[in-house]
Design goal:
Elements lengths: L5 H7 L9 E3 L6 E2 L1 H13 L3 E14 L2 E13 L11 E15 L2 E11 L6 H6 L3
Parallel strand pairs: 1-6
Antiparallel strand pairs: 1-2, 3-4, 4-5, 5-6
InterPro entries: NTF2-like_dom_sf, SnoaL-like
Protein name: DUF4440 domain-containing protein
Pfam families: SnoaL_3 (PF13474)
């Protein structure tokens, strides 16, 4: 995704012979099927000049031929540049993500991705604000 390599990104997803895939980008409806999911990534990549992911809170659990990975995606991205600028404005975003993988003869492939925006900070400040 960071390199804008659509072919490599497509290869990471499960193909139709192994089951139907699904994807939820933050704020999007559920996308089902390889065509819908890959079109969404093509659209995102076509409209994102720069994107970088810093993954934190990574947890992985494997059971047989299925794996679940959860993490926080700390995303820095920018759209097309304004006239005369090298880069568009950069925006930071936190997304919590769940990725489900299936083991295939060709290796692990993404079966489902669900990303939800983090809308509020959590921690000691929240406890003080709520009187807890």
């Amino acid at each position: 995704m960071e390199r804008g390599d659509f072919d490599t990104l497509s290869d990471l997803w499960l193909d139709a012979s192994h089951g139907e895939i699904s994807c939820v980008h933050p704020g999007w409806p559920v996308l089902t099927g390889r065509g819908e999911v890959l079109r969404s990534y093509a659209l995102i990549m076509a409209n994102t000049e720069y994107i970088q992911f810093f993954l934190t809170d990574v947890r992985v659990s494997v059971a047989g031929d299925t794996a679940v990975a959860t993490c926080t995606e700390n995303i820095l991205s920018g759209g097309p540049a304004e006239e005369g600028d090298d880069l568009g404005p950069l925006v930071g975003q936190l997304v919590v993500a769940t990725n489900v993988f299936r083991r295939t003869p060709d290796g692990w492939r993404v079966w489902s991705h669900h990303g939800s925006p983090v809308l509020a900070e959590t921690g000691d400040e929240d406890a003080e604000d709520t009187g807890s």
